[in-house]
Task: structure prediction
Amino acid sequence: MSMNTSAEENWVKIDLHIHTLDDPKDAVDYSAHQLLERAGSLGFGVLAITLHDAVLDRKEVYADAAAMGILLIPAAEMRLCGADVIVLNVTSEEVAQLRNFDDLRRLRAQRGRSIFTIAPHPFYVLGGSIGARLFTEIDCFDAIELCHFHIGLFNPNWRAKRVARRFGKPLIATSDAHRLYAFGQHYTSIPMPPALTGENVFAALRNGPLRLTSPPCSFGDLLSSIYFVFLKHPFRLRRKIAASMRSKTHVAPHW
Result:
């Protein structure tokens, strides 16, 4: 059922799992400002750029987001003991201390409800999916991601939904965007809070209600994703690593 404009304005579109070319471990071809432009045109209110093992530290990006009326939450997608974890509202110094799940537990104990953690793509085969370990580490997470990549019978999200129900955790739809066009199709909506702050967003996610938008992939999307994951992205990543190695080995001449 469609909603009128007034009803839509009472909800905020959020995406808490996005990558940009600032990512130190991924080869992404769009900038944070290109992301902001697209987010503004699509009416998003809250974003998190989740670089791998790093927090985006460019103050001008946060300032530009705020000027557009978008809350940009500092965040990182950390690899802990082989498993990916999204940590929201953290500093570079804090993520530098995260090496395992006990470190994450200590950070959560120190920060309380002012941070928010998500288990991304928990039951997908590739990448850093946590898999069955989610059951033993469930106390480290506030929410479980509803992964964008699903089509027909291929939908590992059914296991994520079952774990979410069992442990009373909310499901959060995200784009995990590595290509700009992929951003905007998969997201979560929350009721408009009194003020758009990280704490209010986290409270809305914990307490609900939530609206999840995550349509199945089309066959074209499926082929495009396979091409990107297995061919285009590895080639980009190899070029990025090679360029980085050349930069590190270059020594300025001494006169």
About this structure: The mean pLDDT is 89. The chain has one domain: 11-217. The two ends are 73 Å apart (CA to CA).
